[in-house]
Write a structure and sequence with these properties.
With 353 residues, this protein is an alpha/beta fold. It contains 16 helices and 9 strands. 45% of the residues lie in helices and 10% in strands. A 7-stranded parallel β-sheet has the order 1-4-5-6-7-8-9. A two-stranded antiparallel ribbon has the order 2-3. The two termini are 27 Å apart. 49% of the residues are buried.
């Protein structure tokens, strides 16, 4: 549960310990800050790297991935450094082809039948995704304890939507057809994804990740009844694989899902990442004592530095002084001005007026 007491008010720059303390609901001098997709197209140095490497090539190129991971940290000094990758990385080792570059992901041979699910294979993340673990170890050698390193994976439900739909979807008709006509096929797929991603995320922790985040980007497409029947058990199965609980915090992120907060709050995660559609004071009442992350609208960063500062201060006030990680409610938008990211990080460390 969250507690509060007087703390010093002068921050000293990025801090791994600040991040971990906030995630576990312990008092901090100021809230820690990072931004989802903080390594990306809004940075000119990132665009230079992408001129020579396609997206999936960059994800697997250890020195380049470390470089782009550290680019925003060098500029802005966030408290958290999220390794550069994508939630679909575990699918190819399972036998699901992924094509990923501009225009969104494409999966040419989607999973549609029980036979398709049966052919999916388990994999050793330290072998078939060894580059991910090398990135984590490389980051720890460089960063040490100056900031928290963040690992992540997709939640089983969200990965299942890509695997079944064959890419992104607006209506999710194919996965929902399976859910209602062949629920056992979907449940078997979710179980395989949960085990694969649980081992994948566990390996990231063993490779040095200080904190991990589970992205359930499409959970909001489900009713609470369907979430509790299909998605939540699979996410909890994923969580059962993770080592060092109580030492390595787990963040759960799902956008557009305020109707599911009460279900999220019952899961064995440490932090709930909240989007901008749900005020943080309301989320606090429903969070079952868990820490919160978020929840500034990424669109705010398309405005002025003053507007960014005001939005961050407002989020901090609503979240309260303890157990809050300052972040956006979703990822940085590519047209975001660099000065507004600087304003975002600075506002997280301001004394509140």
């Amino acid at each position: 549960m969250l507690t509060s007491r007087a703390m010093p008010t002068t921050p000293t720059g990025p801090s791994r310990q600040r991040f971990l303390d906030a995630a576990f609901g312990r008092p901090t001098d100021v809230p820690p800050v990072w931004l989802m997709r903080q390594a990306g197209r809004y940075l000119p140095e990132y665009r230079e790297v992408r001129k020579r490497l396609k997206f999936l090539e960059l994800c697997a190129d250890v020195p380049a991935a470390i470089e782009v991971t550290l680019q925003p940290f060098r500029r802005f000094g966030m408290d958290g450094i999220v390794f550069f990758s994508d939630i679909l990385i575990p699918l190819p080792p399972m036998g699901i082809e992924v094509q990923l570059d501009e225009g969104g992901p494409k999966l040419p041979r989607p999973i549609r039948t029980a036979a398709d699910v049966a052919r999916l294979r388990a994999f050793d993340p330290n072998v078939e995704t060894a580059f991910v673990m090398e990135i984590h170890r490389g980051l720890k050698r460089i960063v040490h304890d100056e900031a928290a390193t963040i690992g992540f994976c997709g939640a089983p439900w969200t990965l299942a939507t890509y695997a079944i739909e064959g890419g992104s979807s607006k209506s999710f008709t194919t996965v929902k057809t399976m859910m209602h006509r062949e629920p056992k096929v979907l449940e078997d797929l979710l179980a395989k994804l949960a085990d694969a991603c649980g081992r994948y995320l566990a390996a990231q922790i063993e490779a040095g990740a200080d904190l991990v985040q589970i992205f359930d980007s499409w959970a909001g497409e489900l009713s609470r009844a369907d979430y509790d029947r299909f998605a939540r058990p699979a996410t909890e199965r994923l969580l059962s694989h993770l080592p060092r609980r109580g030492q390595v915090p787990v963040v759960h992120f799902a956008s557009g899902s305020s109707h599911l907060i009460d279900s999220f709050a019952q899961m064995p995660v440490d932090v709930l990442s909240i989007d901008w559609k749900l005020p943080l004071d309301e989320a606090r009442k429903r969070a079952n004592g868990k820490a919160l992350q978020g929840n500034v609208d990424p669109g705010t960063l398309l405005g002025t530095p003053e507007g960014v500062r005001d939005a961050v201060h407002a989020a901090r006030r609503l979240a309260g002084p303890v157990g809050h990680i300052v972040n956006l409610g979703h990822g940085i938008l590519p047209p975001t001005p660099i000065e507004n990211v600087a304003a975002f990080v600075a506002a997280a460390r301001d004394p509140l007026p």
